[in-house]
Amino acid sequence: MSSGQASTLRRTALYAQHLALGGRMVPFVGWEMPVQYKGIVEEHHAVRQRVGLFDVSHMGRLELTGPDAASFLRGLVTYDIAPLEVGKGHYALVCQEDGGILDDVYVFRLADERFLMVANSANADRIRDWARQYLRPSLQATVEDRQAETVMLALQGPDAHRYLARLVPPLAKGLRPRGCAEVSLAGVTLFFSRTGYTGEDGIEIILPSTAGIILWKWFVEHGVQPCGLGARDSLRLEAALPLYGNDIDTTTNPFEAGLGWVVTLDDGADFIGREALLRIREAGVQRHLACLKAQERGVIRPGHAVLHSGRRVSELTSGGFSPTLGVSIGMAYLPTELVSVGTELQVDVRGRPLRAQVVKRPFYKRPKAG
Amino acid sequence: MPSPTDRRYTKEHEWVRVEDDLGTIGITDYAQDQLGDIVYLELPSPGTQVKQLDKLGEIESVKAVSDLYSPVSGELVEVNQEVNDRPELVNQSPYEEGWLVRVRLADPAEVDKLLSAEQYDELIAQAQET
Predict the structure, then answer these.
(1) What is the dihedral of CA A148, A153, A154, A160, to 10 degrees?
(2) Which end of chain A is less packed: N or C, by CB atoms within 10 Å?
(3) A234 touches chain B (CB under 8 A)
(4) Is A41 close to B88, i.e. CB distance below 8 A?
């Protein structure tokens, strides 16, 4: 953790590694994180073409254990995780009573009575406190915060599986998509999942901090490009993955965000926000998160107004330059009548109207493995 | 690395290299490093009249957009087409291949108002201390 100079920002166990690699450190939701090393575009291409490595240790990691862990967790998230197989994970949302989104998370089942929930760094403490608040003393379940003692790495790209095979031969045949496994290596327990936030194939790894530093160095020594938050954002945007705080937050509901697929309302199980979400599903949505692609030069960014026939209809929640497409892309909530692919819009970029068009989601889809 | 001494600099991190009455203009290595990967350049067309320290155009990087200011007054006579097609040239070679525009100087004495390489290096050294 932080040492030396006074700093109100938290640091992951890999801080010294980032500095040694020439990482440009910036504040990010209370953490001091590398935004880039070599450059955002170069790191972006490395992930799309080969493999890149991200330090995501600032993300929340909660372990929920006990006979009631499954039903407790089911009550906390929108997706029915109770039937999740051991060794599988699923995307889910944590909602508040009114259906607004508190966080988007990933839930993994490590054992019948043991789950791992990975939360956004911005919400890590909030989600942990939320879970503990809802954990009635009568329930046989515990919530442990694993963030401080572990490191989390994201190894992403078409070549990621090769490193997994070298590191853990038993996993050489690979994990199933969204599959996970705990493996013992040199006396250390490592968690692997075939998940990520880049739109490429890849794995995420959680392990104790000291071993995590050794593993990070091993990847870098073996030619993996370290990648920062800048590339992480451009990659996820191309994959049209929502960013909490930009595309989803407590003022957005899952259906208008296109996340109805992780809301299970018909299994009969109660969860926080269920009543509100039933009503919202019944009523239908007035707006929907859409993908916009610039039709001319310039970069559309979060906050830029979106116009239709000269009338302001929305503003971008996400935006930036797409290195893979060579053009600017973004996302915005549009009135449902404007959401069809091909709708012509304008984005106000510093007073200049920039032509944009609604396109099919996602902007980029990785080629099917040969 | 010290900034090249064959040119003069503005506080806004542009440089001008003068040969006779023609000034070649670009941004400094410090500027391209601060900007990050450059993706678009908005530059005026040949024939445009420019004034010293007036806004010349915009440089857009992945991170942000930055205004470009002219170090000299005069008529813009040439735009580097290479950087239009390959903006990354400005990051890779800010002092050579990544030049932006050429201006026919209206008043060569204006250049004396700009910073020397030494003065510019002092400026950025101070900026990096804060």
Answers:
(1) -160
(2) C
(3) yes
(4) yes
The segment(s) of chain A belonging to CATH 2.40.30.110 are 286-370
Mean pLDDT score, A156-175? 88
**pLDDT higher than threshold 80 for residue A184:** yes
Beta pairing partners, A101: A95
CATH 3.30.1360.120 domain position(s) in chain A? 15-56+148-238
Measured distance CA(B24)–CA(B77) in Å, rounded: 10
For residues B11 and B119, the answer to whether their CB atoms sit within 8 Å is no
Taking the Cβ of residue A36 and every Cβ of chain B, the question of whether any pair is shorter than 8 Å is answered with: yes
* ipTM attached to this prediction: 0.90
Closest to B111 (Cα-Cα) out of B30, B2, B14: B14
Q: Please judge whether A40 and B40 are an interchain contact, meaning their C-beta atoms are less than 8 angstroms apart.
A: no
CATH class of residue range A286-370: mainly beta
Domain A15-56+148-238, CATH class in plain words: alpha beta
Catalogue all structural domains in chain B, each as residue range(s) with its CATH number.
30-113 (2.40.50.100)
Mutate which of B35, B42, B62, B65 to disrupt the A interface (most A C-beta within 10 Å)? B62
pLDDT score of A3 more than 80: no
For domain A60-133, which architecture applies?
2-Layer Sandwich (3.30)
What number is the average pLDDT over the span A216-238?
98
Give yes or no for A303 touching B (CB within 8 A): no
Confidence of residue A170 (pLDDT cuts 50, 70, 90): confident
**What pTM did the predictor assign?**
0.94
Residue A154 structure tokens: 């994201």
Distance (Å) from the alpha carbon of A42 to chain B's nearest alpha carbon = 9
Nearest to A40 among B36, B40, B65 (CB): B36
Q: How far is CA B58 from the centre of its chain?
A: 11
pLDDT at site A7: 60
Distance CA B86, CA B90 (A): 8
Q: Which of residues 21-80 of B touch A (CB under 8 A)?
A: 36-37, 39-40, 60, 62-63, 65
Domain with CATH 3.30.70.1400 in chain A: 60-133
Report yes or no: A9 at the B interface, CB cutoff 8 Å.
no
The rounded distance, in Å, linking the Cα atoms of B29 and B124 is: 11
Partner B, chain A 278-297, Cβ-Cβ below 8 Å: 297
